[in-house]
Amino acid sequence: AQTVTQSQPEMSVQEAETVTLSCTYDTSESDYYLFWYKQPPSRQMILVIRQEAYKQQNATENRFSVNFQKAAKSFSLKISDSQLGDAAMYFCAYGETSGSRLTFGEGTQLTVNP
Amino acid sequence: DTGVSQNPRHKITKRGQNVTFRCDPISEHNRLYWYRQTLGQGPEFLTYFQNEAQLEKSRLLSDRFSAERPKGSFSTLEIQRTEQGDSAMYLCASSLVPGGILVNEQFFGPGTRLTVL
Description:
The complex is a heterodimer. Chain A has strands at about 5, 10-15, 20, 25, 30-40, 45-50, 60, 65-70, 75-80, 90-95, 100-105, 110-114. Chain A is built from no helices and 12 strands. In chain A, strands 2, 5, 6, 10, 11 and 12 form a 6-stranded mixed sheet that branches. A 4-stranded antiparallel sheet of chain A has the order 3-9-8-7, with no helix packed on it. In chain A, strands 1-4 form a two-stranded antiparallel sheet. Chain B starts with a strand and ends with a strand. In chain B, the strands form 2 sheets. In chain B, strands 2, 4, 5, 6, 9, 10 and 11 form a 7-stranded mixed sheet that branches. In chain B, strands 1-3-8-7 form a 4-stranded antiparallel sheet, with no helix packed on it. Chains A and B meet through strand 5, strand 6, strand 10 and strand 11 of A and strand 4, strand 5, strand 9 and strand 10 of B.
């Protein structure tokens, strides 16, 4: 079974600074998807960024980028120019190519200080 | 609003009662998923449907839980004889498969928060 581990329960960053959230996973599959989801307080989960495992190029979405290290099974999220609205719980998730379940990590609570 | 909707948003019940939650997915999405999220944890998979067929159920889905998607559109999740340990946020998500680059991107609803007294 796949597992996802987020070793940072909490992180904080100053507004306009850069922060990196860590995620490692375990799988025996060669093709899969990885995601970062954001869950603001009392609001629904939204997709921040996704990465297809067969792609070597790291995904980027505006201020959000990932560092995908397939051999190391590592998938970190970098948030540049942090904004107050980035404050949320961030979940790393693993998805099978069959489009079935997502397996989530425990989450990292990000605080952005003004 | 064309996103995933869930009703009710909050449910308080007494131990032993039955509860039912509803999820309306994004209209063109053929897959629908249920997850359970306890406080401070990531969502845990419960079950999912492709159209009206239930394709997979987690071990978390005990025999007190049942989910349906009768016409391949909305879905219901019923919990019978609720226990205090059932208190959690129940999340619904939907996706379109196959969908090219959108394969396996799941769109989440706001969740139903269940409190069992």
